[in-house]
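Appendix B, example 12.
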Amino acid sequence: MDNHTLLSSFGKWVAPINIEKLTEQITQTGQDRYTKKFTTYSYIKLLLLSHLEEVESLHAMSDTLFDDDVQQELGLDSISVSQLSRKHRTVDPNLLASIFYQLVGQIRHSQPGRTVMPVKIIDSSTMPLNLTNHPWATFRKTKGGVKLHLRLVFMENGSSYPEYANITTANEHDRNQLEVLVDDKEATYVFDRGYIDYERFDRMTDDGYFFVSRLKKNSITRTIKAFEVEQGSTIVTDQMVAVGGPTKRMDNLCRLIEVDDTKGNRLRLITNRFDLKASEISDMYRSRWTIELFFKWLKQHVKIKHFYGHSETAVINQIFLALIVYCLHVLIQLETESRKTILQISRLLKAKLWKDCRHWLRRISGIP
């Protein structure tokens, strides 16, 4: 953008990051104590830009500094690959996690007042890694990987945003994350069969947490009471049941809903919510696919399938920066009340990256 006299689209996009708080954290941790020119904030902006542009490697990232606009934005005229690599593996992941949760807080407060109890979807996604280059990323005998455990909030307008993330090695079982990911009694948690754990379900019920999950096909249930099913709906049965067999069972009674999906497959859904219609429980579980779409977006539209560094810190940093990219998109979507998808907003941003941000905002707002 000419002389940067006006705020660029990129500048507007990253504006929600609280620079004052970030600077305070950097000072407290001494993150930039021996830094001469490549500051942590410059690193963050460069990596966000690299995610946005899906830059292939640190060498290609270094080459982006040939662009005058990038130089102006970062306050740098060049950066070596070795400097990039060193910074990427030494920035404290807690600093990036803090930015992520700060943006999550902004998203939460940008939404209109809640009219219904929110749905929070829990799932994980594994990113394979080469064990030779990433010996810390334990998974299988010959394979390595990291796992992103995620809690996604499904908003009333049908969109969603990541609310909590925990990154572990890929050998961490999903069930072990439930107690970390479940912390809001004013929400209903939705997850798939990989999280089935009768003991934890009992604790959740006793502690006042609500859940909806798919039950495994071989799970034993005993009908206590059958509820009336609405004619013409996809609901097949709606029952109060005891879950489990003689040696492994739940102490609390649950609700079992059998429903046919769009492909004609029979799904068995278990929940501790008896106050909703069976169709509402079914809709809640159907929203679980939102998190599958989110993981698909991450793997296709930011640099998450290939990592810029081999260390655990470098990998975790890259994942948190990808989550920050998504949150920044959601914030601009909420601010402009845009009906465009996150992908459309991202594409329009790339097209107007260093132009006056007003052009970008008009496009995503649908203003001629």
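The chain has a mean pLDDT of 92. The radius of gyration is 23 Å.
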